[in-house]
Amino acid sequence: MLTDTIGGFLESAKARHDVGLRFLDRQERATFYSWAEIWRRASSVAGRLHGEGIEKGDRVALVYPTSIDFIDTLFGTILAGAVPVPLYPPVRLHRLDDYSAATARMLEAVSAKLVLADGRLRPILGSAAAAAGPPLGCRTLSDLAQKEDVTVLRSGDDLALIQFSSGTTVHPKPAALSHRAVVAQTKALNAHWPDEDGCINSGVSWLPLYHDMGLIGCVMTALERPGTMTLIPPELFLARPAVWLRALSSYRATISVAPNFAFGLCIEKIKDEQLVGVDLSNWTIALCGAEPVVPRVLNRFIETFEPFGLRSSALTPVYGLSEATLAVTFSDLDKPFVSRRFDRDLLSNAGRAVESEDGLELASLGRPLEGVELRIVDGDRSDLPPGVVGEVLVRGPSVMEGYFDRPNATQEVMRDGWLDTGDLGFLHAGELFLSGRKKDVLILRGRNHAPTEVESVVDEINGVRSGCSVAVSWLPEGADGELLMLLVETKRGADRPDDAELVDACRRAVRVSAGLELDVVEVLEPGTLPRTSSGKLRRAESLRLYLAGELVAPEKMTPWRLAGAAFQGSLKLARLHRKNRSRG
Amino acid sequence: MTRAHELGILEQIECLAREHVGFRGELRRELRLVEDLELDSLRALTLAVEVENHFRFCIEPEIEARILTVGDLIDVIGAHVEDHAD
Question: Beta strands of A404-547 (E only): which ranges?
Answer without folding.
Answer: 414-415, 418-428, 431-437, 442-444, 447-449, 464-474, 483-490, 520-524
